[in-house]
Structures are given as C-alpha cells and as structure tokens.
Specification:
Blueprint (H helix, E strand, L loop, with lengths): L14 E5 L3 H13 L3 E5 L6 H10 L4 E5 L12 H10 L4 E5 L6 H4 L9 E3 L5 H15 L10 E10 L3 E5 L8 E5 L15 E6 L11 E6 L11
Parallel strand pairs: 1-2, 1-3, 3-4, 4-5
Antiparallel strand pairs: 6-7, 6-9, 7-8, 9-10
Helix pairs in contact: 2-3
Length: 231
C-alpha cells in the first residue's frame, strides 16, 4: 500500500504516466509524484491520435495515467485529453483527467463525463486527492461504481436550446437549478426538442457538483395518462 492507494498490493510502486503539453507542468507534477513514492514516466508529445499515445503508454507499462485535457499546445497532440482518458479506462488502465479549465469546459466535458470517473482541478492536486482519484478509477474500471456515479432514469426538462448547447432542469437532482450539456447528446430531431420538452435520461443524480453530472440515453418522456389523475 502507498499512502491512500489501498488497492495497490504489489511490492514495487506503480508507474504513473504524466501526459501534459506544458513541459514545466509535466516536470513539477512528476517531481511531486516521485516524492510521494511513485515511479514516473513522462510523455513528451507529438501524438497524432489517441492510439499513438495509448501505444506508448502500454509500451512503458504504465499502471496509472494522469492526463491534462488541453493537449494541443506546440503540436503536442491532436485531441483532447478526455478522449484518451475514456479509452484508457475502457482498456483497464485507471486514468484521471486534470484541467485548469473545468468551469469553462464544463459543458464540453459532458460529452465524455459518463466515462470519466474523476476530473481533478489542476489547482487541487495533492497526494490525497490523486490517490483517492486513482482508487475511484481503479474500482470503476473493475466494475465497482461509486454511488455518485450510478445512473438513475429521471425526467429532464429542456429550458432553452442554443446552437450547440442545451440548458435544462433536473429537479430530482436540484430543484429548478439549470444545467447545460452539448446538444449532440440528444439523438432526437431538433424539430422535436425545444424549450419545455420533457425528456427521460440516465443521470447520476448522486453527484454533489453539477460539473460531475452526466447524461445518457435520452428519449421523449411519455405523455401523461389522462386517467391517472396527474394530467
């Protein structure tokens, strides 16, 4: 066991891959990780696509990955870190996404949020948070989903639709508190979905922060039955 990483049972420390397009940030984080007792592999960039990055991560036998979301600086990578983290977790390599733009990226990140067990703010990286994040990722990769990540079928009321964004209410999560997510998550005709439309979706209403909410499997909510006393 290392620190809070209680699920780590091997005698040697795990190898953590650090993926970040900022060389200084890579160095500072790797230095911290080594101080906490981990082995570190730095990834220096020029990745045309996600498979190219994953190939190198596998080649270096990394046990965990910490990946920044914005990776396009100086041609480091041609994709967002969220795309890589989703694929890495699905391949069984516990990976956490870090970003210093979580508030401004909140709507965009909803595209991948259902498959991102943890997103850490770069300003909130410390040993406890990183190790707890890896524990949560490792558990989800192995099929144990935390209560705040479990989906529930709930009613979603569309409040407004913009060019690529939907603003909606999920009253079962928080009464009349608006939440935004990408329009392309709703695979229904734009002519059908408009302000006031009621939808059903799978939402992790156990989340305590709006940034952690995800939305899956939208469909139109059924019309009320005039004989059930609710119409």
């Amino acid at each position: 066991m290392i620190g809070q990483l209680t699920s780590w049972k091997r005698d040697i420390p795990p190898i953590i891959a650090v993926v970040d397009d900022d060389e200084t940030e890579r160095f500072l984080l790797s230095d911290e990780l080594r101080k906490w007792g981990y082995q570190v592999e730095l990834f220096k960039g020029r990745y045309a696509d996600v498979p190219a990055l994953i190939s190198e991560i596998k080649e270096k036998r990394s046990d965990f990955v910490i990946c920044d979301n914005h990776l396009q600086q100086a041609g480091y990578a041609g994709f967002f870190g969220a795309e890589a983290v989703v694929d890495l977790n699905q391949l069984g390599i516990p990976s956490i996404l870090v970003t210093q733009h979580q508030d401004t990226d909140a709507t965009r990140l909803k595209k991948w949020r259902a498959k991102l067990p943890v997103i850490l703010d770069k300003n909130n990286i410390n040993q406890r948070n990183v190790e707890q994040a890896f524990e949560k990722c490792r558990a989800e990769v192995n099929g144990t989903i935390a209560p705040d990540r479990l989906p529930v079928r709930v009613l979603v009321e569309v409040d407004a639709i913009y060019d690529k964004e939907v603003v909606a209410f999920v009253d079962s999560w928080a009464l009349r508190e608006s939440i935004s997510f990408p329009l392309n998550l709703i695979h229904l005709s734009r002519n059908i979905v408009k302000a006031g439309t009621l939808l059903l979706a799978d939402v992790n209403i156990g989340a305590t922060d709006r940034r952690d909410l995800y939305f899956l499997n939208f469909e139109l909510a059924p019309e009320p039955d005039p004989d059930d006393g609710l119409a």
